[in-house]
Design brief:
The protein has about 450 residues and is of the alpha/beta class. The protein contains twelve helices and 24 strands. The protein has helices at about 20-30, 40-55, 70-80, 90-95, 115-120, 135-145, 185-195, 215-235, 260-280, 295, 330-335, 425; strands at about 10, 15, 20, 35, 60-65, 85, 105, 125-130, 150-155, 160-165, 165-170, 180, 200-205, 210, 240-245, 285-290, 300-310, 315-320, 340, 350-355, 365-375, 380-385, 405-410, 415-420. The chain binds pyridoxal-5'-phosphate.
């Protein structure tokens, strides 16, 4: 059994996280419940930040908050000197509500609305990552109207696509995001921006994929982007100062996954950028990255309560939990794999193979297929590991299921940071039908 971060087993045979008994948490806040191990989040954040600091490289480590966005996580991110990236007015609003320093907020998105762009200017955020030509024109208009400066990067597609252990170099990037680096679009974007006074062009951003377990793909992307910076500098004398290499650092969901330490990814990235900058004779740019999953993924655990069960003789044993695809869409969406335990039976031996099914009206609503656990009974607490990224943030009210509670644990203490939705919450946006009432 692989335990993450501060997870341990206490003398009752229960799973603990951050020194807190998960069975106590289940009783106190109910299930389903997301539990975040703050010590692990902080360790990962420091892993990335320290790796840049050790080599004296100017950097920003921006938490990609789409992985899990809530006031409390922005507060902890601020404590850890992270920057954050947001992809909507909603995430931006949440970060601002949390008091997150606006100069360390970066705004992404392929279709930011005019209102969202105004919101970003009004909050004086640190940087907007421009995705397309339409946005360049919108930003020019807004900056002129407000007579306000704004730092900008352009998002480029470098023709490197990476996922897990594979990466490919694609001739042309068929992506809804960004400007293609090789077909002249990135050059056109640069031309439209670098002489602007209010829009302060800083450099380029690329994001090459997710769950990446090797460093070569990042190095290759870095090479391509630095190469382009050097060409522009040669042609115009303009020195781009920022290279943002996005997120995508892999984490361990199951024994099949073999992630690298944050420091390893960073060290190889720095090496590649330094080499390329030296080869092309340009100054080393600031390096920015945007880890999401690798900051919050394995820090999160979901607690569920076992209800019904069903044995299909010689085929399968189902146990059903009180959540499912409404709090974790990833297995149904892309066949994501997870590990789980019975949190109140940590010292009992695994003897029965189960499929853990959710409670939603979809046959595909299964969290894990074929996992061997101790004998499960009604009322047991199932803990699914590594659910901290893209779990709560992708949660839905499908079947009008209330979204779970979120709890932070650290040093033996626990705190509710997002309360569970109530039935009242579920109907609070609904208005009665009145047409035809005269
Ligand atoms: C632009 C950008 N940056 C960062 C991330 C975070 O990726 P991950 O959670 O895999 O680190 C994403 C994820 O989709 C992204 O699109």
């Amino acid at each position: 059994m692989h335990l993450y971060g501060t997870q341990a087993i206490n003398d009752k045979g229960n799973l603990t996280i951050g020194g807190v008994d998960t069975i106590t948490l289940a009783k106190t806040y109910g299930t389903p419940q997301f539990v975040y191990d703050l010590a692990l989040f902080r360790e990962r954040a420091r892993g990335f930040i320290d790796a840049f600091a050790q080599q004296d490289v100017k950097a920003q480590v921006a938490y990609a908050s789409k992985a899990f966005s809530a006031v409390a996580i922005y507060q902890v991110a601020a404590q850890e000197n992270l920057s954050v990236d947001v992809v909507s007015g909603g995430e931006l609003h949440t970060a601002l509500q949390a008091g997150f320093p606006s100069e360390r907020i970066h705004f992404h998105g392929n279709n930011k609305s005019i209102e969202e762009l105004h919101q970003a200017f009004d909050a004086k955020i640190g940087c907007i990552v421009i995705d397309n030509f339409y946005e360049i024109e919108l930003l020019k208009e807004i900056a002129a109207e407000k007579q306000q400066k704004m730092a900008v990067l352009i998002r480029v597609t470098p023709g490197v696509e990476a996922h897990t252990h594979d990466f490919i170099t694609t001739g042309q990037a068929d992506s809804k995001f960004g400007f293609d680096l090789s077909n002249g679009q990135a050059d056109q974007a640069f031309e439209r921006l670098y002489k602007e006074e209010l829009l302060q062009f800083k450099g380029m951003h690329c994001h090459i994929g997710s769950q990446i377990f090797e460093t070569e793909a990042f190095s290759l992307a870095a090479r391509k982007v630095v190469d382009k910076m050097a060409v522009w500098e040669k042609e115009t004398g303009f020195k781009a100062s920022v290279l943002n290499l996005g997120g995508g650092f892999g984490i361990r969901y199951t024994a099949e996954d073999s992630p690298l330490e944050p420091a390893v990814y960073v060290a190889d990235m720095i090496k590649a950028v330094k080499k390329e900058a030296a080869d092309f004779g340009i100054e080393l740019p600031e390096i920015w990255i945007e880890p999401g999953r690798s900051l919050v993924g394995d820090a999160g655990t979901t607690l569920y309560t076992v209800g019904s069960s069903k044995e299909v003789p010689k085929v399968r044993n189902y146990i059903a939990i009180d959540g499912g695809m409404s709090d974790n869409i990833r297995p149904a969406l892309y066949d994501a794999k997870y590990e789980a335990v019975i949190a109140n039976k940590m010292t009992q031996s695994n003897e029965i193979t189960y499929t853990i099914a959710g409670k939603l009206c979809e046959s595909g609503d299964k969290i894990i297929e074929d996992i061997t656990l101790p004998k499960a009974e009604v009322g047991d607490t199932i803990a699914t590991f590594c659910t901290g990224a893209y779990g709560y943030s992708m949660a839905s009210n499908y079947n009008r299921i209330a979204r779970p509670a979120v709890v932070f644990v650290e040093d033996g203490q626990h705190q509710l940071v997002v309360r569970r939705e109530t039935l009242e919450d579920l109907v609070k946006l609904d208005l009665p039908f009145t047409l035809g009432e005269g």
